[in-house]
Amino acid sequence: MQGLRRASNGSVLPRSAHGVQAAVVSWLAAGLLAASSTSGCGAAQPKAATPEQTVVTFARALGEGKLDVAYALMSDDYKKRVSLDAWKKQLSESTDEVVEVSNALARVRGPSTEEAVLRFGEDGELRLRKLGDRWLVTTDVVSFYDQSTPRAALHAFVRALSRHRYDVLLRLVPNADKEGMTPDRMEAAWSGETRDEVERMLASLKTHSEDPIEIVGSHATMPYGDHARVQFVREDDVWKIEDPE
């Protein structure tokens, strides 16, 4: 696609043991659900009264190889994205890292922070945190195109592309790929012959915007769809998109 290109140093991301472990932690934590919720996977639902107890129960199940029990503690949204078979396959491919993660999670420190997430508009998300008997807003609601995390950068990309904000899209391009680019040139390239391709990519990214993202140092990757992926790079203290495919 014209406009954004894969950087030469971003085609293959390094995978260190630490990076794999971090990815496993991020991937598991993204879908962990309080055990008091109902489960749809058929396994007996473990009893846990607090977030800390849920995490310890989850860690014990992982450590003992009871993957069905651990999967029962994942959220319904997560299970829609990742099947039980896919879950087992990915864990079986990183057994050493799973052991390390389960040992670390078993020593989780509390108390937990009570938070809530509300969705609004087409793609908005509002986070609140409970302080005493009050709920306070923690989301920066005026940061419309946040780049503080890979996920935020992805949401910014989708929102900017949907609104034809090519000036914002240019901010999401890595410095190495910006030469010769202007908002007008990006608009001409993405609204011409490639328009249908761009629209298909945008629709797919909206569908998969909450898929797991693997972060390794200053690079991140989100596989999505059949064989597509988004690659991110952190520079100038913000996350940018190398290749949205």
Briefly summarize what is shown:
The chain is of the alpha+beta class and 245 residues long. It has helices at residues 17-31, 51-63, 67-71, 76-81, 84-92, 95-105, 150-162, 166-171, 183-190, 195-207, and strands at residues 115-120, 124-131, 134-137, 214-216, 219-224, 228-235, 238-243.
Distance between the termini: 7 Å
| Count of extended strands | 7
- CATH fold call of the largest domain: Nuclear Transport Factor 2, Chain: A
Task: Give the helix/strand class.
Answer: alpha+beta
Give the biggest sheet.
4 strands, antiparallel
Q: Helices and strands, in N-to-C order?
A: HHHHHHEEEHHHHEEEE
Tally the helices: what do you get? 10
* Share of helical residues: 40-55%
From the 3D coordinates, which CATH architecture of the largest domain would you assign?
Answer: Roll
Q: Overall 3D geometry?
A: globular
Unreliable stretches: 1-27, 33-43
| Order of strands across the main sheet | 4-5-6-7
Average pLDDT confidence is: 78
CATH class of the largest domain: Alpha Beta
Radius of gyration: 20 Å
Query: Which range does the strand content fall in?
Result: 15-25%
